[in-house]
Amino acid sequence: MLEDAGQRIEDVDAVFVTHEHSDHATGLKGLARHGHLKFFANEDTARPIQKQLSRRVNWKLFKTGQSFVFRDLKVSPFTIPHDTYDPVGYLFAWGEDDLFNPPRKLVWLTDLGYAPKFVQNKIQDVDYLVLEANHDIQMLEMDDRRPWSLKQRILGRHGHLSNKAALDLLESVENPRWRKVFLAHLSRDCNKVDIVRNTFQPLSEKQKCPIHVVDPHEAVAMEVEG
Length: 226
Description:
The strands form two sheets. Strands 4-5-6-7-8-9-10-11 form an eight-stranded mixed β-sheet, covered by helices on one side. Strands 1-2-3 form a three-stranded parallel β-sheet. The chain has helices at 22-25, 28-31, 43-51, 117-124, 137-142, 148-155, 163-172, 193-207; strands at residues 14-16, 38-42, 59-62, 68-70, 73-79, 88-94, 104-109, 128-132, 180-184, 211-215, 220-223. It is globular and about 45 Å long. Helices cover 28% and strands 24% of the residues.
């Protein structure tokens, strides 16, 4: 996927881990072979991941809620509601009050069951937003591969944002300054790119903001037509 994006693993400086669930942590087994990579996580996330690995990862531990600097980035990890020990979202800030290097902010926000008020505040004045649009509620309810207990977990307040919940969150933000929004972490079985695009098209037109949907089957982002 890096090659498809015109990048190389040698050009990557660090990996920022949000939580220990396998769909977010499995890749560390292979990535740990690259000695130049640094892996940022809080202790409650790093500990269970490391127990599953034979190779020691180059961990850079932080405390949730405390900002730190890495290279030219100011990184602010913040708590999100999900069913792990200490899951986080990230606010990345860079740039200066300079014509050629203006200040910019990006928030990475996936794997949360709902958006508390402080999360709404986090995303209001960012330039770029990566937000979860995990599932279509009707598709999830009709899915016959997931037991009801798992469906309840996904739909719960420490599960995942549905398309509707993600849309409600974006619509609740007053006067956002977004330059681009990326909708990510789509379920392969319980969501479809076309459904997400159709759901968010009116918002894209209203906000005059490009909204991109990341296809989970191809890991590419397609812009919502608006």
